[in-house]
Write a structure and sequence with these properties.
Blueprint: H1 7-41, H2 50-63, H3 65-71, H4 77-91, H5 111-123, H6 129-138, H7 145-154, H8 160-163, H9 169-175, E1 180-192, E2 195-206, E3 211-218, H10 223-233, E4 246-249, H11 257-265, E5 269-272, H12 282-294, H13 304-320, E6 345-350, E7 355-360
Parallel strand pairs: 1-4, 4-5
Antiparallel strand pairs: 1-2, 2-3, 6-7
Length: 372
C-alpha cells in the first residue's frame, strides 16, 4: 500500500524542519557564547544576586539535569537545581513569622529609646544614668539605669563626670553670642611714592549681627598704635565694642598685653584662640575672604586714600546691599526699598560697577544713592 503525502502535509513537515533547524542554530550560538564567557572569566566565580538566581533556577527546573548538561551552561546542572531547591525551601520557611514575645530573655530596647538616650546624653553632659532614666520615663520608655549605661558604653559615651569635661567652643559661642565680637588683621599691597608697601587693615566684627567696623589702617601696627585702637573701640560714647563682653583674637604678637589690658579695663575680656585655628574665628575670616575676592583683589591701589575709599565703599555694600547666608540670606541693614514688588528695577553701582545692588525704585520716595 502506497502512502501519499498531501500538499499541506508536505508544507507542514517543511515548516517543522525549518523551525527545528533555526532552534538548533540558536542553541549552538548560545552554547558558543557561554563557552566564550567561560574563557573570559576563567576560574573567576560569577556572583549573582537572589533575583538572578531565581530566574535561572526556574528555567533550569523545566529543562532537567540531562538537557542542561548537553547545553553547556555557565553554571553546572547541580548548581542550578540546588538553587531551585533552596527557593522551594524559602517558600515554606515561616521562621520570620514566629512570635517574638515567645523568645526567652528580656525584650530588646527599641531603636527610638536608644536614639533618645544618646541625644539626651550628648545634649546634657552632666546628666547621669538615673537622670537619663527619669527623663526617658517622662517620654513613655521604661528602662533601667543599667540599660542606659550599657547603651552609652556601646556607643562610646562615658559616664557623666567624664563624658564632656570641658565646654566646647560651639557651646561657648551659643551661650555668649550677643556679647561676642572678633578682631583680626588682613593685608594688602599698595603702590606709594616709596614703591610697593604693605598696609595692615584691622577689622572688628559683631558676631550676632555680622556688622563690621574698620578699626584702623596703617603700615606699622606698633604698640602705641594698637593701644590707641583699643581706646577707640572701647570709647564710652561711640566705641564699637560697647556692650560686648568677649573679643576673639588670634595669638598675633600685635595684640600685646597692653592692648588687652585696655580692653580689660573697659570690661571686654580678650579670648585668645588656640594656635593655627582660623576656623574658630570663621565669621571674620570669611569677611576678609569676601573683601579680597570681591573688592581688594580686583583693584590696584595707589596711595592710602584710594585704599580707604575702596574699603569704605565695600563696607557700605556689605552692610546694606549684600545678602548673607549666615543670616538666612538677608541683608544686615536692609533699606526701605527691600521687598518692594512694584516700581522699576534699578541697579546701584559702586567702585565703577565692581559692586552692584539691584532694587526697585519707589514711585513716591527718592531713589537710593550710593555713598559718596
Amino acid at each position: 500500500m502506497t502512502f501519499v503525502l498531501r500538499p499541506w502535509q508536505i508544507l507542514f513537515l517543511s515548516l517543522a524542519g525549518w523551525v527545528n533547524r533555526e532552534q538548533q542554530q540558536i542553541i549552538d550560538y548560545l552554547r558558543t557564547e557561554n563557552q566564550v564567557l567561560r574563557e573570559l572569566h576563567g576560574r573567576q566565580r560569577l556572583r549573582l544576586n537572589d533575583h538572578q538566581r531565581r530566574r535561572l533556577a526556574a528555567k533550569a527546573q523545566a529543562l532537567g539535569r540531562k538537557l542542561l548538561a548537553q547545553i553547556g551552561t555557565l553554571f553546572s546542572p547541580d548548581t542550578l537545581l540546588r538553587w531551585h531547591r533552596e527557593l522551594i525551601a524559602r517558600k515554606w520557611d515561616y521562621s520570620d513569622r514566629k512570635d517574638q514575645d515567645r523568645k526567652p530573655g528580656r525584650p530588646p530596647t527599641s531603636d527610638d529609646a536608644v536614639q533618645l538616650i544618646l541625644q539626651m546624653a550628648r545634649d546634657n553632659p552632666t546628666w547621669g544614668y538615673d537622670r537619663l532614666q527619669g527623663a526617658l520615663a517622662n517620654l513613655g520608655h521604661q528602662v533601667s539605669d543599667q540599660t542606659v549605661g550599657n547603651i552609652l558604653k556601646a556607643h562610646g559615651l562615658e559616664p557623666a563626670p567624664k563624658r564632656q569635661p570641658k565646654t566646647t567652643w560651639k557651646t561657648f559661642l551659643q551661650a555668649h553670642w550677643d556679647v561676642l565680637a572678633a578682631i583680626d588683621f588682613t593685608t594688602i599691597e599698595v603702590w606709594t611714592k616709596n614703591g610697593l608697601v604693605t598696609f595692615y587693615l584691622l577689622f572688628v566684627m559683631e558676631l550676632a549681627t555680622r556688622r563690621v567696623h574698620l578699626a584702623g589702617c596703617t603700615v606699622q601696627p606698633d604698640a602705641p598704635w594698637m593701644e590707641q585702637v583699643a581706646r577707640n573701640l572701647t570709647a564710652a560714647d561711640d566705641g564699637f565694642l560697647q556692650g560686648k563682653r568677649y573679643l576673639l583674637m588670634d595669638r598675633d604678637g600685635k595684640f600685646s598685653p597692653a592692648f588687652r589690658a585696655i580692653l580689660q579695663s573697659a570690661g571686654v575680656e580678650a579670648v585668645l584662640l588656640p594656635p593655627r585655628s582660623p576656623n574658630l574665628n570663621a565669621q571674620l575670616e570669611r569677611f576678609n575672604r569676601s573683601l579680597k575676592g570681591e573688592c581688594l583683589g580686583q583693584m590696584i591701589f595707589f596711595g592710602e586714600a584710594m585704599l580707604r575709599k575702596a574699603v569704605q565703599e565695600y563696607l557700605a555694600h556689605y552692610h546694606a546691599e549684600r545678602n548673607h547666608q549666615g543670616l538666612d540670606n538677608r541683608l544686615i541693614q536692609p533699606g526701605p526699598e527691600v521687598g518692594t514688588a512694584t516700581g522699576e528695577a534699578q541697579c546701584r553701582e559702586r567702585l565703577g560697577g565692581l559692586l552692584r545692588y539691584y532694587y526697585r525704585a519707589s514711585e513716591s520716595g527718592p531713589t537710593p544713592k550710593a555713598a559718596a
